[in-house]
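Example 283.
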Amino acid sequence: MQCDRSTRTTSIYAPRSCTLLAVEELTPQEKLFRLRLDDGSALAHQPGQFIQVSIPGLTEAPISVASSPTRGLDFELGVRRAGMLTGAMHQLQKGSKIGIRGPFGRPFQLQALQGKELLLIAGGCGLAPLRSLIQYCQDRPEEFSAVQILYGARSPQDLMFKDDLENWQRSDRLSCRYTVDNSPADSCYDGETGLITRLIAADKLVPENCCAVVVGPPPMYRPVIEELRHLGLTGPRKIMLSLERQMRCGIGKCGHCAIEHLYCCSDGPLFWLEEIEHLRGAL
Ligand SMILES: Cc1cc2nc3c(=O)[nH]c(=O)nc-3n(C[C@H](O)[C@H](O)[C@H](O)COP(=O)(O)OP(=O)(O)OC[C@H]3O[C@@H](n4cnc5c(N)ncnc54)[C@H](O)[C@@H]3O)c2cc1C
Ligand code: FES
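Predicted structure in complex with FE2/S2 (inorganic) cluster:
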């Protein structure tokens, strides 16, 4: 049978080529990659979506888009060196080519967030996907009543996006606080220390008009949710969170990322708390 090349190039299984425009070290484990599609088109993602990144000869890995679609043709990825694919990405130089599929997944529910006070809570590498929403909020301030960012990292050297954190703190459209779990005695860090839950407890929001978005490592979720409930964020559509599972296809076909009847790649990765809290192994 003859292969239909026109179908192959537009297939969601076929990677599209991108050029690496810039690489910046964010922390000793994380780098920021700025990319552009070689066909000149926009990625056309929504904040919260991910792409499947590939390097010829290696596997694929899902990586969230860390920049907002409101920022033009280029897009950015904040990538932690974890294994084979991300390790190889960390070796790439400006001008290198990578493949991408997507964007995939359920984004942040922007319509439901409109007019609300947003409490955006990130832990560790979770600031990468949240940065896409934060940039969107900066560019469309009229859509939200207030935006508060809370970020926690393990140590001062693990703080990602330090320049952004400073900009967000200076911004009159956002409020931003961050903390580290521990700061070594010889560190020149003079910011806040302690778990991120401390920042939430100290916070003052009107719960009736507030939505929280939480993206971080799994152990962060239960204590953060408890604090949010203390603040009065109860009931439907008050807390949205991102679940990460190992993925293969990224499009709801292989079942690799299933949590009971839900597929993280296509039903998520963003879920309202009430959609997943009763599912075994979700949190
Ligand atoms: C929707 C989604 C968005 C993501 N966004 C980002 C991002 O923006 N930046 C980033 O650095 N990483 C992100 N990740 C995580 C990234 O995809 C994994 O770290 C991936 O395994 C790296 O591939 P690798 O080949 O380098 O590592 P691998 O060779 O796959 O191994 C890395 C290690 O991580 C474990 N692992 C693999 N996948 C996951 C997972 N999903 N959750 C927890 N542990 C896992 C493996 O068991 C192994 O121990 C995301 C994952 C998902 C599902
Ligand atoms: S990764 Fe294949 S169904 Fe989700």
